[in-house]
Each structure stands twice: as structure tokens, then as C-alpha cells.
Amino acid sequence: AALQYLEAAFDQAVLAIAAVPEPDQPPLQERLRLLTQRAVALIGTLEIADSEGRGTAVSALIGKLETLLLILKESGDNPVEIADV
Q1: Residue 82: which of 3, 17, 22 has the closest Cα?
Q2: How many domains does one find in the chain?
Q3: What contacts 2, CB < 8 A, 6 or more positions away?
Q4: pTM (2 decimals)?
Q5: Residue 21's domain spans which residues?
Q6: Average pLDDT, consecutive stretches of 10 residues, N- to C-terminus, the chain (85 residues)
Q7: Which spans in 20-85 are helix H?
């Protein structure tokens, strides 16, 4: 359940940043990038038994967050690309 809440929080953050006027987005995107990097690093240290597919859920979340990091780095601050994650 915690992974689902974490994923939902990142989804909500992306949508909230996309709703902010474009001139105000860069510092928010940078903060999201830093938080995403930290989350990936912390999640990567978890040792989770693969009962009920939890290992798969962790891998999927890490993949999604790594994709978000790539888009944040390469988007040129394009809010549409970031919101599409």
C-alpha cells in the first residue's frame, strides 16, 4: 500500500507542477527532480520479499521514477512532456 501512495504522490506532484504558470515551473521541476532522485536511491535499497508481487511493484515504480528523471532532465522544461509521465 505504501508504494501505491508514493506513486500517487508523485503523479499528483507532476500534475500540480503542470498546472502552475510556466514561468514558475522551473524551481518546482528542479525540486521534483531532486526528490525523485532521492526516492529512487532509497527504494533501491529496500529488500522486499516477492510475496504478492511486491518486488515487481517496486521495479515498476523505480522504472516510472527513472523515466520521470529522464524527462525532467531532457524536457527543456516542457510541462506537457512532464505531465505525460
Answers
A1: 17
A2: 1
A3: none
A4: 0.75
A5: 2-83
A6: 88 94 93 94 76 74 91 68 57
A7: 25-44, 54-74, 79-83
